Automatic annotation (TrEMBL):
One of its GO terms (molecular function) is MAP kinase phosphatase activity. Residues 76-98 are annotated as: Disordered. It catalyses: O-phospho-L-threonyl-[protein] + H2O = L-threonyl-[protein] + phosphate; O-phospho-L-seryl-[protein] + H2O = L-seryl-[protein] + phosphate. It comes from Alca torda. This is DS13B phosphatase. Gene3D superfamilies: Protein tyrosine phosphatase superfamily.
Length: 282
């Protein structure tokens, strides 16, 4: 058949255990973690799936194969948007930090329209923090070449990226698994602080380098890296999004982004309270 692209509309479910690592480097893979339930909103993937198919068909000599599977909830309208940011994009500079207010969900989603990162198997998105996919997680050669010392698997579990600490026992890697599902209804926020503390501990270890991954490195794992930057690096959500997106194309699903937005509101209120106390003491 000469297939070069695969769209899996049941990615990460109990019925599908494929992925980029299953097909190898010769196949361009896109997974959509959809469930065949009347209540499941598959419309959120229409544009991104259409864009992937369109790109495949416009690649010279390429053949495309769609499997009954699913891909990450990033509506890739951004592929058709300009590659520059406009003045209406939410900002959070140092000078405006005191007046910062968490943007609306729709404004945060607009930040993903302006692509500036990459879609490699793994990218360094912050000093000694690497964000990537399942292929990189299973490539011990890649992990060794990057001198990875810690791994945070945001798609842990028997029906996802079931590596676990035993898989890395010959690499002297400290492992932490989060059994999360890339579904807007999943509460990822319960892992924000534990994951952030694990990353922070890794970075404070001599020579520490942490690899954070899920299936594709765009939603679950990206959300946990964003939470780390907000909790431990005192970044606003806007700054964290821009920081990571500058190095890797990410797109947390709408539910995760909403949970990060709630975290941003909470942390922003705490910063305001700290500033008010400092002002009263002057």
């Amino acid at each position: 058949m000469g297939v070069t692209h695969v769209l899996n509309a049941a990615h990460g479910t109990a019925y599908s255990h494929g992925g980029q690592d299953f097909y190898g480097a010769t196949i361009d893979y896109y997974g959509v973690p959809a469930h065949d339930l009347p209540s499941f909103d598959i419309s959120q993937f229409f544009f991104s799936a259409a864009q992937f198919i369109h790109n495949a068909l416009n690649t010279p000599g390429d053949s495309f194969f769609t499997k009954l599977r699913k891909m990450p909830e990033c509506v890739r309208e951004r592929s058709t948007m300009p590659h520059t940011r406009d003045s209406s994009s939410p900002t959070s500079s140092a000078g405006s930090r005191a007046a910062y207010e968490t943007p609306a969900l729709s404004d945060l989603q607009r930040l993903f329209w302006f692509r500036g990162g990459s879609d490699n198997h793994v990218d360094q998105v912050w000093p000694n923090i690497y964000l990537g996919d399942a292929w990189a997680a299973r490539s011990k050669t890649t992990l060794q070449s990057l001198n990875i010392t810690h791994i945070l698997n945001a798609a842990d579990g028997p029906y996802s990226i079931n590596t676990g600490a035993k898989y890395y026992k010959d690499l002297q890697i400290e492992y932490y698994g989060v059994e999360a599902f890339d579904d807007p209804s999943f509460d990822l926020s319960i892992f924000f602080y534990d994951a952030a503390n694990f990353i922070g501990k890794a970075l404070n270890t001599s020579g520490g380098k942490v690899f954070v991954h899920c299936a594709m490195g765009v939603s679950r794992s990206a959300s946990l890296v964003l939470a780390f930057l907000m909790i431990h690096e005192n970044m606003t959500l806007v700054d964290a999004l821009k920081t990571v997106s500058a190095h890797r194309d990410i797109c947390p699903n709408s539910g995760f982004l909403s949970q990060l937005r709630d975290l941003d509101i909470k942390l922003n209120e705490e910063r305001k309270g700290t500033r008010e106390c400092a002002t009263k003491e002057l």
